[in-house]
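Tip: read the tokens left to right.
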């Protein structure tokens, strides 16, 4: 189940995100491992069929992620930079979910697979092969 949450960091800044824990307790533990304090968490509402991310946005995401990683930026920093710099709110949410998954210990392909409305099975499979 996908949860949306609001948390605060050590300096008091609010952080919004999404994660896929099994329950609210696991969500709180994940958020704490990220150095945040959970304010509120609840099951995310489904966005339906109109929530898909457009192909040009995915192409741009892949291009920029590759450029950042090639420049020596860590995957977590690269995902955070891309999330913060995109103007597309839906893509920002998707990238935030991927970043949460990677930060929670998942591989990139596992984190992408948890966003099936944005990343198809072939895309996730290609990333998985690249990881191996």
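Filled-in amino acids:
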């Amino acid at each position: 189940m996908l949860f949306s949450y609001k948390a605060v960091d050590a300096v008091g800044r609010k952080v919004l995100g999404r994660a896929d824990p099994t329950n609210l307790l696991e969500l709180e533990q994940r958020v704490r491992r990220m150095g945040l304090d959970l304010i509120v968490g609840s099951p995310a509402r489904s966005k339906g069929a109109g929530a898909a991310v457009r192909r040009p946005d995915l192409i741009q995401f892949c291009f920029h992620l590759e450029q950042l990683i090639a420049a020596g930026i860590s995957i977590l920093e690269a995902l955070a930079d891309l999330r913060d710099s995109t103007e597309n709110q839906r893509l920002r949410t998707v990238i935030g979910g991927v970043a949460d998954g990677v930060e929670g210990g998942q591989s990139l392909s596992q984190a992408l697979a948890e966003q099936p409305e944005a990343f198809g099975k072939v895309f996730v499979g290609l990333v998985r092969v690249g990881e191996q």
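Helices lie at 24-33, 55-70, 75-85, 89-103, 108-113, 121-131. DSSP finds six helices and three strands in the chain.
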